[in-house]
Amino acid sequence: MTEPDATAAGEPLPQGRHAADYGPGEVPEIRVRGAEPEPDLAHDPTHGPAHDAERDPGHDAFAPPGGTIAVVRPPDPFVRPRPEFTATAEVPADERSTENRLLARLLGERRLTLDLRRRDRFWAWTGTFVVTLLAAVARLWNLGRPSTLVFDETYYVKDGFTLGELGYAAQWPEDPNAAFEAGDVLTYLEKAAYVVHPPVGKWMIWLGMEAGGGATSAFAWRLGSAVVGVLAVFLLVRIARRLFSSSLMGVVAGLLLAVDGEAIVHSRTALLDQFLMFWVLVAFGCLVLDREQARRRLASRVGAILDAGGAVGLYGPRLGFRWWRVGAGVSLGLACGTKWSGLWFVAVFGIVTVLWDVSARKRAGIGRWWEDALTADAVRGFLAIVPTAVVVYVATWWSWFRSPGAYLRQWAADHPGEGVTWLPDPLRSLVEYHRQMWEFHTGLSSEHNYASHPLGWIIQWRPTSFYWEKHAAGEGGCPADTVHGCAEAVTSLGNPLLWFLGAVAILVTVSLGIRLRDGRALAVLSGTVAGWLPWFLYAPPVADRTIFTFYSIVFTPFVVLTLVYPMVVALERTEHRPGRSRAVAAITVVVTLVVAVSVAFYPLWSGMQVPYDYWRSIMRLDSWV
């Protein structure tokens, strides 16, 4: 579709002047009536949700019967040809408003009708409730089993407890776990411990202990993780519903997260990575809401301009303050306050939200859409997200600031003239603390039986064993007639079928995203990019840091979204067409098999005692043991 020629289809340029003679501030606007009919979207084979959501303006038009109203300007080398929108005054009475036609382009017809369909409203809340309840049962049932500190709980539970007691993590006497597990939790020393992660995750563990009855209960140690795990399932249902404009597929996404092994194990274990995952997911949800709100504002303001008889030129309207971006900044600050790897999500999510704005302004018919998005949206987005995240991150150290006995709290006073001297002493001490933390993380290289290369994470090749215990027949509750005794295990192993299909879905999603020019593909892949790919910088051949597969919990929700995305596209492309029943059947089979695999693996995720032969039959690969 090309710009109409003013001299051929409308009024000529003013006498004696040519297009090239006009400057940026005096571009002539010549209205031209064409004769392009409105496309029949109901029978258009290129019309569908995947196209509605991310359609190229060059292949789309929302014109009234009888013609379009176009604005003709001198050629601009930076502007791609695009259709123009007709003001409401020029549209027949039975046509939709300019704003609604813009909304259909920016959000898609499915999103606009999502809350109008009874079936969607049913699945929206009934399905969400059922899936969230399932997640709660899988995570809270017998949460106190095993009753001992498992894996890195030995650090984070005790750090969280003393953080609440003293305001900082304290040291413990040698071999304190037996006494702590027996309920003697006050053996800590009032001397600061050197901890290498920020405090947010440990504060959340402490909150769980307070709500669960205190540090003497293994149930209480893990309650914070379990609650966060249940909330993550709820959030994913709502996020996927809005992102895919489908209540049913939102429920499918939540169900897959509810039954995944990584999600279950981390919900039943007091480690930090669960809280990192949660705050990252909250930030992503904020940005998805911001995307919709920004596009609704853009449609409203562009529509108002056109309805008033104006025209959208090279630059579009400003969208005002965007609070959801501030919410994303707060969440990302809390993510970084849990683990520093949250920084990668700040960068990746920031790029994604800017690309969403670029796409929206392009579709709204704005001339220099790329420049407009960068100047009007990207700068403001940066200021809303990044400084907010920095301020929130520093604020998470509040108890360290107010505790004179905290680790390195008095470093500046003891080392005058050293460090970043222009900072106030408390901040100078905090910077020194961070320098030491950085040296620890970058220099961490030690042998560990469960260390793994990130290449295998996406198929859970080398999972991490958090706990394993074997009992002989007749001992430790193992029935006397059991042939080879019993085993208890907590293995951070994602549902093998889900993760294998998720790995395949990444390739499919990349292909579909490019072919359909669908921004949803970029969205679902963003978390995996931020949570997985950076770890290759710490693995051979680049480096040799000790890293583990269980770090993949942070991008587990995005693996689920990536697996669901091809299902969504399949349903959209077969709606009211042959092949619909096959698509539904395939999705049903996949979801059923994933749930069945989770049922088989659940005892190995939750520390249940099972016959040793059962454990060995489930742990098929030697790399899992």
Give the SSE layout.
Blueprint: H1 6-9, E1 30-33, H2 49-53, E2 69-72, H3 98-107, H4 109-113, H5 118-140, H6 153-166, H7 177-181, H8 200-212, H9 218-244, H10 247-258, H11 261-267, H12 273-307, H13 323-336, H14 342-363, H15 369-395, H16 398-401, H17 411-414, H18 425-443, E3 464-471, E4 486-492, H19 496-516, H20 519-531, H21 556-573, H22 580-606, E5 609-611, H23 612-618
Antiparallel strand pairs: 1-2, 3-4, 4-5
Helix pairs in contact: 3-12, 5-9, 5-10, 6-8, 8-9, 9-10, 9-11, 9-12, 9-21, 10-21, 11-22, 12-13, 12-14, 13-14, 13-15, 14-15, 14-20, 19-20, 19-21, 20-21, 21-22
Which features does this protein show?
disordered N terminus; 625 residues; 5 strands; mainly alpha
Please give the number of β-strands: 5
What series of H and E elements makes up the topology? HEHEHHHHHHHHHHHHHHHHEEHHHHEH
Structural Rg? 28 Å
Stretches with pLDDT under 50, minimum 5 residues: 1-94
Largest sheet: 3 strands, antiparallel
Helical content stands at: 40-55%
For the largest beta sheet, what order do the strands appear in spatially?
Answer: 3-4-5
Distance between the termini: 60 Å
Structural class, from secondary structure content? mainly alpha
- By DSSP (H or I, 4+ residues per run), the number of helices equals 23
Give the mean pLDDT: 86
β-strand percent reads: under 5%
Shape: globular
EC number: 2.4.1.-
Main location: membrane
Protein name: Polyprenol-phosphate-mannose--protein mannosyltransferase
Function: Protein O-mannosyltransferase that catalyzes the transfer of a single mannose residue from a polyprenol phospho-mannosyl lipidic donor to the hydroxyl group of selected serine and threonine residues in acceptor proteins.
